[in-house]
């Protein structure tokens, strides 16, 4: 039975806590959050103890096997570094760090101390994306050529609006588009160059919206266009891949298997439609199950900490391109650790 | 009104001829085509005269011409028609070089004839409605636009650069650029493009993602790829996703469709919306009758062409380029 300490009881922390409760070989032994009530709520029906500080938790808990970091991005490095020496395994939410240097330092420190580091790039575990990967492998659409992705919805609401603070979240390109950068890299290999546009800071912060369009050229020749939005209503995501022999197209907004509308109580109250795509096991659960399996059985994960680093590298190139107004060419081959672009 | 068609090289010529045939006040008065067998066949089909020489068609009883020849021949055909004092509807892109386009515009002005460039998407009813919402401030201040004009590889002379001036980027950049200019009364000032031939065997560009900065501060991207394959349910699309401070708008010019699953014809989307080509031809005729400026001018054609040419320059240099 692996003993897990969960840091953060926000949106992702809740999702992870729920997943751990349903996994047989894991015991959630502690939950840390400054807001005790939030952590308390998650601890229901578990033996998990609730703490308001990390220090208190590690002082009172024995034999922590896994520390799972579901904190805002700007805190990832601090808590990964603190967790080394306490637990042999760390699971960290995406993006791994705020930049390539942070991510490189975390990976180096974990390697040096024989700590396994897993990063929650959950899109790899979404069945629709797994299916797309297998169709590509099968050659169903020949050689991929032009790829379009979309992701986003309304501006995310969270603790102290940390998503709205670029210094804390890295903004839309690092926080949200990182999913597509990672998936595209998994499908089409290393990136040659990136050109990107995003709303300027005044428009984005003033209206509490953000929007970015990123063009990525891969070494394989594939041209990809990624749309990231915190300007729309209702979360959705999609990907279209046009190849030499066909097209793969998926959009969660157009393919909702279940739509629930409750009758508005007031006459003027328009019913809100809540789309769902129910699965026996959520992608988040599958992700954590896989990481636990990797820990227990010494397997390599399907998405590595280096993949997480490379995804950040693409995001940083996109951000640099937004700043300079020019395309950014990525250094070829494997990055050296901590190599800033 | 007696209308002549110069060349059936571009498939749109058939759509235009069908529209002319449909209206009583319009007459397809003659056809010239360098491809004699094609020209004779279409003339017979439409019960009209075939001319083996362009100057014969221009000397005949014809008020107006539609130029639907290969892109690089637009200049010679338009200028010959202008000199013969014919009003002209020219297929897009207006030409394959900015110099040709400028000469065409000057020649039409000098001869006092009307020159309209065929950007039918401006006549699409959903597109017009989208522009109305945008222009009335329904989205607040416009910040960004994501556009697509994807299509099926048209084959034939489109793949011969000497005739087409380029592949997908030349073919499919101009429509959306024209819409951006028309929606926002703004000009494209900077262009970056990733362009390649990744799908077809022929060595001409069939994939392109173009990013544009406009002089009103808006950024926009366009996917102009010939990326719709044989089994895709339709030929292509024109879409815009517009992001503003007060909201977003998505418009798809061809989404008024029925899904058909046929054992004999396969799966396809059958369009039932208004016919933008028909509205364009009727408006072109109206402009001639009223002696007014055409809705889409030669200059609009030139401005859109310049962005396509900038996209190629960007791709060749690997840098952003100033659009001029």
How would you summarize the topology of this molecule?
The complex is a heterodimer of chains A (341) and B (324).
Chain A: E1 2-7, H1 11-22, E2 26-32, H2 36-42, E3 49-51, H3 54-60, E4 66-69, H4 76-83, E5 89-93, H5 100-112, E6 116-120, H6 127-138, E7 144-152, H7 166-169, H8 171-175, H9 178-188, E8 191-198, H10 201-207, E9 211-218, E10 223-229, E11 236-243, E12 246-251, E13 258-261, E14 273-276, H11 283-297, H12 305-324, E15 328-329
Parallel strand pairs in A: 1-2, 1-4, 2-3, 4-5, 5-6, 7-10
Antiparallel strand pairs in A: 7-11, 8-9, 8-15, 9-10, 11-12, 13-14
Helix pairs in contact in A: 1-11, 5-12, 9-12
Chain B: E1 2-6, H1 12-22, E2 27-32, H2 36-45, E3 50-51, H3 54-59, E4 64-67, H4 74-83, E5 87-91, H5 98-110, E6 115-118, H6 125-135, E7 142-148, H7 161-164, H8 168-172, H9 174-184, E8 188-196, E9 207-214, E10 219-223, E11 239-244, E12 247-252, E13 257-262, E14 266-271, H10 276-290, H11 298-317, E15 321-322
Parallel strand pairs in B: 1-2, 1-4, 2-3, 4-5, 5-6, 7-10
Antiparallel strand pairs in B: 7-11, 8-9, 8-15, 9-10, 11-12, 13-14
Helix pairs in contact in B: 4-5, 5-11, 9-11
